[in-house]
Amino acid sequence: MAETLSKTASQCKFEGLTPILNVKRISESIDYYVNRLGFAKDWDWGEPPTFASVSRGGVCIFLCEGAQGQSGTWMSIFVDNVDALYETYQAQGAIIRQAPTNFPWGMREMNVEDPDGHRLRIGTPIEIPSDEVDV
Hints:
This protein has 135 residues and is an alpha/beta fold. It has a single domain, classed as 2,3-Dihydroxybiphenyl 1,2-Dioxygenase, domain 1. The chain contains 3 helices and 8 strands. The chain has helices at residues 2-10, 26-35, 82-92; strands at residues 20-23, 40-46, 49-56, 59-65, 74-78, 95-103, 107-113, 119-125. It has a 4-stranded mixed beta sheet, covered by helices on one side. A 4-stranded mixed beta sheet has the order 5-8-7-6. Strand 7 (107-113) and strand 8 (119-125) form a beta hairpin. The mean pLDDT is 91.
């Protein structure tokens, strides 16, 4: 049985991943992701809306008011130029918890927070030494 399950499971191609973040006020969360972080609103659902989708490039995030998920979820998002994005986010008033920093695992990352306490570790792969930061 385990051998059959394993063979069947190995034939199942994973297509993508979309986190679902619990938010207090869907309209404020959409506004933050669109106007501070540069995402686009894909859609919202409900009357009034309690569920929505925002995306930027190949990254999609669902926002759920008062139901699924918990505050404080962390995500890693990979970009081609974290320093340029940092400058944009500073100008747009994003909540930046850590400026771009070189880490020993080969990433230059910044840490951004949304109004509900979710954290986005946004980074670019690097091949230079770390900034000797505590992790």
